[in-house]
Amino acid sequence: MSWIFLFFAGLFEIGWAIGLKYTDGFSKPLPTVLTVVSMIVSLGVLGLALKTLPVGTAYAVWTGIGTVGTALLGIWLLGEPATAVRLCCIGLIVCGIVGLKLVA
Known about the structure:
Radius of gyration: 14 Å
Distance between the termini: 14 Å
Strand content: under 5%
Number of domains: 1
């Protein structure tokens, strides 16, 4: 169950990271509220996952999910470059997440 919590915590991390872009410096109320709620939910669900997972593993996977998802959504939604090197680096992060799951 902790891995499921961790997965959802990572998804909410993606939500607040992308949400920051849409807040326009916290000047837009709805995106700001949604971003802050995503932050709170992400940290809360991470806390639930940490009840049984090692902190180093959980934190690395949480940030990895957030990093990969944010980078991919940046490419898809925000028109950020999708160079081969960038995609390979994202792939390496995914390999690290899978590796941590396998050894934890």
